[in-house]
């Protein structure tokens, strides 16, 4: 069964095609705001509308399949930026109607989790989900129909890990204000203590961000970047270790955009080693926002029996992972 999935929750428009768990193509185009600016919803949505057709065509030609060969369509229904979500929702509804094929709305966070679990061949891991807007420790209840499908054991009490780095990079006036640039500078910096906030299995970054911004001009940018990363990663590692002890899970996967950070993966792998748990992360292509993860998850959900009335599908910008049925 071939599924075409469309992702457009934030800056990335992605179209991926998956055939029974095998990724055939994963095309994308990213909206890049001018230096010093965050995502402007209207501009990001305009970008997605403009590039919808070329990205769709690229995905189909890379996969060597025609639109008529697609058996199932899927789109990222939420959470995300409302104006961006509407692009994939409208596009997917049109494709579904044109080809008379079914359509599923997929939770973006669930897609990050599912493609990581599936491609790594894990059974029932503890998920460490780290992206711009979301930072959560999640487990799945694999017994169908028994309570909530996913449980958030711990999460950020203020901002997502990716946003922490992006805001700091903008405040420090980096030429490339993003997490990759913070990571690049951190690799040659020295650690100094910054505020560290863990409450049970929850964590917070606002005090850490304020302190890091106030350190600009007093410490080198490299040292601040290093200390910001080490402190925030250590917070999540402490909470993840607590979650690992509580649940007794034997597998841990890190997923989402910030999972591409090698230092964070090293730190989590160390925690897992101490508890005899297997650690894994998929390649950056599948941890960044992408359409293949939407298609991959839709196929799992279809197999699980999920069916939807296409007319009733609409974006849900505030759809939490623990509301997924
Ligand atoms: Fe994401």
Task: Tell me what the structure shows.
The protein is an alpha/beta fold and 325 residues long. It has helices spanning 41-63, 82-99, 108-120, 161-171, 179-186, 206-214, 221-247, 262-274, 284-287, 291-303; strands spanning 2-7, 12-19, 22-30, 72-78, 103-107, 126-130, 135-140, 150-155, 197-199, 202-204, 251-255, 278-280. Strands 3-2-1-4-5 form a five-stranded mixed β-sheet, with helices on both faces. It binds fe (ii) ion. Fe (ii) ion (FE2) binds at residues 108, 112, 131, 256-257, 289.
List keywords for this structure.
binds fe (ii) ion, 10 helices, 325 residues, 43% helix, alpha/beta
Written as H for each helix and E for each strand, in order along the chain, the element string is: EEEHEHEHEEEHHEEHHEHEHH
Structural class: alpha/beta
Strands, total number: 12
Q: What coarse outline follows from CA principal-axis ratios?
A: globular
Cofactors, ions, other ligands: fe (ii) ion
Our estimate of the beta-strand percent is 15-25%
What strand line-up does the widest sheet have?
3-2-1-4-5
């Amino acid at each position: 069964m071939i599924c075409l999935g469309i992702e457009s929750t934030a800056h990335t428009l992605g179209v991926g095609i998956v055939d029974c768990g095998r990724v055939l193509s994963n095309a994308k185009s990213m909206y890049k705001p001018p230096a010093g600016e965050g995502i402007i919803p209207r501009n990001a949505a305009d970008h997605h509308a403009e590039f919808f057709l070329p990205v769709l065509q690229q995905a189909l030609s890379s996969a060597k399949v025609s639109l008529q060969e697609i058996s199932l369509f899927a789109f990222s229904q939420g959470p995300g930026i409302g104006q961006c979500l509407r692009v994939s929702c409208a596009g997917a509804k049109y494709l579904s109607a044109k080809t008379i094929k079914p359509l599923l709305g997929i939770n973006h966070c669930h897609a990050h989790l599912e493609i990581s679990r599936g491609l790594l061949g894990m059974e029932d891991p503890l998920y460490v989900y780290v992206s711009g807007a979301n930072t959560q420790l999640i487990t799945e209840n694999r017994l169908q129909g028994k309570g909530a499908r996913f449980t958030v054991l711990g999460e950020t009490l203020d901002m997502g890990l990716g946003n922490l780095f992006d805001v700091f990079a903008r405040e420090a006036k980096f030429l490339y204000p993003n997490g990759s640039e913070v990571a690049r500078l951190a690799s040659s910096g020295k650690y100094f203590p910054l505020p560290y906030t863990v409450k049970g299995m929850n964590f917070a970054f606002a005090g850490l961000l304020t302190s890091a911004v106030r350190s600009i001009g007093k410490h080198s940018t490299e040292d601040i970047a290093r200390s910001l990363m080490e402190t925030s990663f250590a917070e999540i590692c402490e909470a993840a270790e607590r979650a690992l002890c509580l649940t007794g899970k034997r597998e841990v996967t890190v997923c989402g955009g910030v999972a591409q950070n090698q230092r964070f993966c090293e730190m989590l792998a160390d925690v897992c080693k101490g508890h005899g748990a297997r650690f894994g992360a998929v390649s950056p292509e599948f941890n960044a926002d992408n359409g293949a993860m939407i298609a991959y998850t839709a196929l799992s959900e279809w197999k699980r029996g999920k069916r939807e009335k296409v007319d009733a599908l609409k974006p849900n910008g505030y759809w939490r992972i623990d509301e997924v049925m």
